[in-house]
Write a structure and sequence with these properties.
about 180 residues, two-stranded parallel sheet, about 40% helix, alpha+beta
Length: about 180
């Protein structure tokens, strides 16, 4: 009788694949809210335990208040199509800002990138750099909180992109539809 070990074969029902056990629902995680100032290249990051509407309202309100304190009266937020970036988030943000004297007279506008189009989102280019500079090649024993603190430290040292690099990214995004990208 022939006996061989085979590590690349498994029985499964037709049109299915064996699924390894996962602890995805129980794993420790943080959701990052990353913002990029398209004029200066400055970044803001905040980590929250859940990606829920109230958390997004809190983060965007802090950003709006920072720019209001600098004298800005019009703010444009470019958002991806995350499910929490909806009308209820915008209404909750408007309600919260209406209660804050510093935010009186501030107009916040929203622009949504097309669904499933990360190439049109300037923050996605920043996310790539943050991952490369702060998160790659870390010891597996680092906790999620330690990783978040590392991202905070790296972004506090200096913006990952210069204003010229941000301008180049915006030019690239502007040219995408004309280049036949689909």
């Amino acid at each position: 009788m022939l006996s061989t070990t085979c590590t690349h074969y498994a029985w499964a029902e037709k049109n299915t694949a064996p699924a390894p056990p996962s602890n995805e629902k129980r794993r420790e995680k943080l959701n990052g809210f990353l913002a990029l100032d398209l004029g200066s290249g400055q970044t803001t990051v905040d980590f929250q335990p859940q990606a829920k509407t109230p958390n997004a309202v809190y983060v965007i309100a802090l950003i709006v208040l920072r720019y209001a304190s600098l004298g800005f009266r019009q703010i444009l937020c470019i958002l991806d199509n995350c499910s929490i970036h909806n009308d209820s988030m915008k209404a909750a943000l408007a309600e919260l800002l209406a209660e804050i004297p510093l935010a009186q007279g501030i107009a916040v506008h929203f622009l949504h990138t097309p669904a499933h189009s990360p190439k049109f989102n300037p923050a996605e280019y920043l996310i790539r750099l943050v991952r490369k500079n702060s998160l790659y090649h870390l010891p597996h024993a680092m906790t999620v909180q330690q990783r978040a603190e590392r991202v905070h430290r790296h972004l506090a040292q200096a913006p990952p992109q210069t204003p010229q690099q941000v301008k180049n990214i915006l030019s690239h995004i502007y040219r995408l539809p004309k280049s036949g990208w689909s």
